[in-house]
Amino acid sequence: MFSRRAALLSFLLSGAVNALDSNVTHTCQQIAAAISSASAVYWPLELTYTANIYHYASSSAAAAVCSVEPGTPEDVGLILQIVGENQTPFGVKGGGHTMNPGWSSSTGIEIALSRFNQINYDASSQTVQLGSGLIWDDVYAALNPQGVNVIGGRVTGIGVAGFSLGGGYSWKTNQYGLTVDNILEYELVWPNGTVVTVSESSYPDLFFGLKGGFNNFGIVTQFTMKTWPQTEVWGGIIEIDGYLYADQFNAAIANFAKNVTDPKAGMLMAYNYALGIYLMTAILFYDAPTAPPGIFDDFLAIPYLSSQVSTQSFLSLVQASPSNATELERGYYHTVALEALTPSIIDVVYNQSLHYGALLALDSGILISYDVEPFLPSILTHGSDTAYPPSRAQRYLPLNLYFGWSLATSDDAFYDALVETQSNIYNAAVAEGQDIADAALYPNYALFGTPLEKLYGGNVGTLQALQAKYDPDDVMGLTGGWKF
Ligand SMILES: Cc1cc2nc3c(=O)[nH]c(=O)nc-3n(C[C@H](O)[C@H](O)[C@H](O)COP(=O)(O)OP(=O)(O)OC[C@H]3O[C@@H](n4cnc5c(N)ncnc54)[C@H](O)[C@@H]3O)c2cc1C
Ligand SMILES: *[C@@H]1O[C@H](CO)[C@@H](O)[C@H](O)[C@H]1NC(C)=O
Ligand SMILES: *[C@@H]1O[C@H](CO)[C@@H](O)[C@H](O)[C@H]1NC(C)=O
Ligand SMILES: *[C@@H]1O[C@H](CO)[C@@H](O)[C@H](O)[C@H]1NC(C)=O
Ligand SMILES: *[C@@H]1O[C@H](CO)[C@@H](O)[C@H](O)[C@H]1NC(C)=O
Ligand SMILES: *[C@@H]1O[C@H](CO)[C@@H](O)[C@H](O)[C@H]1NC(C)=O
User: Fold this and answer.
1) Cα dist from 311 to 140, 279, 298, 315, whole Å
2) Which ligand does the CA of 133 lie closest to?
3) Does ligand 2 have an atom closer than 6 angstroms to the CB of 26?
4) Which of 258, 257, 256, 344 shows the shortest CA–CA distance to 302?
């Protein structure tokens, strides 16, 4: 179904052809000469260069010839004009958390957006301007003293940019929708260097396209988002021995997914296989200092290895997740869009995690994680038309599959296994009657090689026309990602 080798081949070939066409070192020097003093170019061995090419998954990083940190939107425009003229491949990096190789990295030039770190909160309009180089941790820390928050990432370290340009499933999504539904304005640098403000009224077509369309229309330097009230929250992460308590854990998930309708409640459950240890984790979330009784009782009744559940700040709950511990590993994500988390499909997910955990541990595997993410049926009513999801008639649940390993020689084996387990779960869901043949896969979770139609459905044609309109020379084709 997914033609990985064809995708990889065309990816490698495009890089190789571009590398022959252009002298990247020369392009770097041209950029250094053109940009203002607000920006800078860095070379290998410099600490800033190392930080600029850094990615959460080491397989998503690449050794660029140089990196550049633009400090103004105008400099971003100059850089895009130069790489476009020279046909130099480049990467655009926000928080560097993509799990697809080459999506925000390049063996040409890495454009790192870290200097766009502004956080301008406006209490009167209940909005905040966020630079596209921020990670959510910084945003939560800055907004907390104001008693407000935005609809952002659920664990530590994730970038604002890629998350917001792809969709955005948050702890507050049950109440306020996806991150794309909470963006009012984008500061966008077109591929020809012009800086524009994209809103519903100024460029409705781009406003639609940027809600799921990533880097196809240029580089975003700032997002303006709605803010919502934020008190302390109740919740945290619980770790459970998966060999002992699977039945209770599985039943608790099914019950929560089916029966909990309080939009302030959220959960993220994971089946984790790490170096022979089988651990289940549940992150509990309630958007108030205390949770009403009943909602989380099934989980709290399971004996745990550790629990961090308490009343705490939103940031502290987000940072309690051990996601940073997996840095420096290779890793890919994949996903199934489910209609429902039924007891039987939960059983299949559980079984698949055990099966592939044991199998892949033999092949330099470090961490296999199957993450179950319940959301209310109403989450898509908080927004209107977007590139992703392509239809708002029904919401689907993005199952997150994560395989992490250590050796580059295992990349193919893990890719193939991920495709296989994805298809096993998909087939099992269809077999039990889930109507998911046309359910869009979440672009921030889908594995490279997945056909565009699987992510953007009936929007593909519109998005291709939009890309051709705003990037007629296909400058953004020099960078990786889901390409229209
Ligand atoms: C540990 C972990 C936890 C996660 N948890 C969640 C979660 O709870 N909910 C959820 O919805 N997703 C989650 N994700 C997925 C996450 O949303 C994506 O990985 C997202 O793309 C990360 O954004 P980033 O800025 O860090 O990525 P990057 O790797 O920097 O960028 C991702 C893509 O966006 C493009 N891009 C980045 N910045 C710009 C810009 N300014 N202009 C144009 N294009 C740009 C890049 O070129 C690239 O193609 C998680 C991922 C990880 C690794
Ligand atoms: C590439 O550009 C650099 C700097 O401009 C120059 O020194 C070098 O000779 C060029 N290499 C080739 C192969 O053109
Ligand atoms: C995780 O890593 C990011 C940098 O990528 C850092 O800013 C953040 O504080 C880290 N979180 C924790 C809990 O250490
Ligand atoms: C939902 O709640 C009902 C009533 O308490 C219960 O009988 C049912 O088993 C629950 N559903 C699941 C999937 O646990
Ligand atoms: C568990 O998964 C394996 C591998 O996909 C499969 O062979 C087996 O039939 C599954 N067992 C159940 C009970 O689903
Ligand atoms: C830049 O691109 C936009 C969108 O395609 C176009 O409207 C504008 O005229 C272009 N500007 C220049 C200076 O070419």
Assistant:
1) 16, 24, 19, 12
2) 1
3) yes
4) 256
Choosing from 104, 111, 319, 467 the residue with most ligand 1 atoms within 8 A of its CB, the one to mutate for a pocket test is 104
Side chain identity, residue 188: L
CA distance 322 to 311: 19
Q: Which residues line ligand 4 (CB under 6 A)?
A: 254-255, 258-259, 343
Decide whether any atom of ligand 2 lies within 6 Å of the 248 Cβ.
Answer: no
Q: What is the pLDDT of residues 369-396, one digit of tens each?
A: 999 999 999 999 999 999 999 999 999 9
Distance of CA 432 to the CA centre of its chain: 29
Residue nearest to ligand 5 atom 9, measured at CA: 351
- Which DSSP string corresponds to 74-140? HHHHHHHHHHHHHT--EEEESS----STTSS--SSEEEE-TT---EEEETTTTEEEEETT-BHHHHH
pLDDT classification of 359: cutoffs 50, 70, 90 = confident
CB-ligand 5 contact for 355 (6 Å cutoff): yes
* The amino acid at 398: P
Distance CA 330, CA 464 (A): 31
pLDDT tens, residue by residue, 122-159: 999 999 999 999 999 999 999 999 999 999 999 999 99
CA 160 to centroid of ligand 3, rounded, Å: 14
Mean pLDDT of all residues in 93-117? 98
pLDDT digits (tens, 9 = 90+) for 163-218: 999 999 999 999 999 999 999 999 999 999 999 999 999 999 999 999 999 999 99
Q: Measured from the CB, is residue 424 less than 6 Å from ligand 5?
A: yes
Ligand 4 mean position, distance from CA 256 (Å): 9
The two structure tokens encoding residue 227: 């803010």
- The share of the chain scoring above pLDDT 90, in percent, equals 91
pLDDT-wise least confident of 53-57, 154-158, 307-311, 324-328: 324-328
Task: State the distance from the centre of ligand 2 to the C-alpha of 67, rounded, in angstroms.
Answer: 17
Task: Please identify, by atom number, the ligand 6 atom nearest to the C-alpha of residue 471.
Answer: 5
